[in-house]
Amino acid sequence: MRVIVTGANSGVGKATAAALAAQGHHVVLACRDVEKGKRAAEEMTGDVEVARLDLADLSSVRAFAESIDRVDVLINNAGVMGVPYSRTVDGFESHIGVNHLGHFALTCLLADRITDRVISVASAMYLFSRIHLDDLNWERRRYSKWMAYGESKLANLLFVSGLVARGMRAYASDPGATDTDIARTLNLGRLQVLRRLIHTPAQGARASLQAVTTDLPNGSYLAPRFNQLGPPRVTKLRPKAVDPVMARRLWELSAQLTGCDWPD
């Protein structure tokens, strides 16, 4: 299969791409930093290529999509977490812009070339958040980087529901508590006991890897025990993550903001 993994130059994305390449798949490492992507590819065994994709810039998303003639599996893995208030090139708040809107646009632009499925990497942080459609880009609310991150992860799950409603095979995966560059925003590395307990990137990649080949019901969510530790298993989502009305409304707003939509 041909698989695209966004954010595949480090962490869970890199581990996911490396495992898929070792299994014999053709893997595209879609990375904002091409040089880091090339260094990551040099450490992998198998059929790997590197392409530039900056999810914080819709012109980059469009250019990348135009370069792809076919993809079997799209893994929307890249993301930012807990960053200070900032905006993307197109003026979106960074968490919702990169984690959701960039991937929304990418998936819609590739819709007619995805032959199998889409996998979105989510997070248990969705549990503590709700979507604010009236202020998705934090223009009026007092900014909270963790609430912004959680809201973007809830958006990922609602996006999966939207894809399923449109007939696309789609799954959500959750790496759980994983020792990666993005998680080090939490300074977990300073707590050596905790660091020994949390997942390695390879362990964090297990849910996405399972989602690549699973025959579970469409829209299933694969997450570790308590959404944090252990091997992935089918996990029931809270109603707010599969609310069809909210999924439809978020989709409509995302299409309006990005200028991208699912083909008729």
From TrEMBL:
Which InterPro entries has this protein been placed in?
A: NAD(P)-bd_dom_sf, SDR_fam
What the entry lists under Pfam families is as follows:
adh_short
Signal peptide location in the record?
none
Q: Which Gene3D superfamilies match?
A: NAD(P)-binding Rossmann-like Domain (3.40.50.720)
What domain of life does the native source organism fall in? Bacteria
Q: Which PANTHER family match?
A: PHOSPHATIDYLINOSITOL-GLYCAN BIOSYNTHESIS CLASS F PROTEIN, PHOSPHATIDYLINOSITOL-GLYCAN BIOSYNTHESIS CLASS F PROTEIN-RELATED
Official protein name in the record: Short chain dehydrogenase family protein
Provenance organism:
Mycolicibacterium hassiacum (strain DSM 44199 / CIP 105218 / JCM 12690 / 3849)
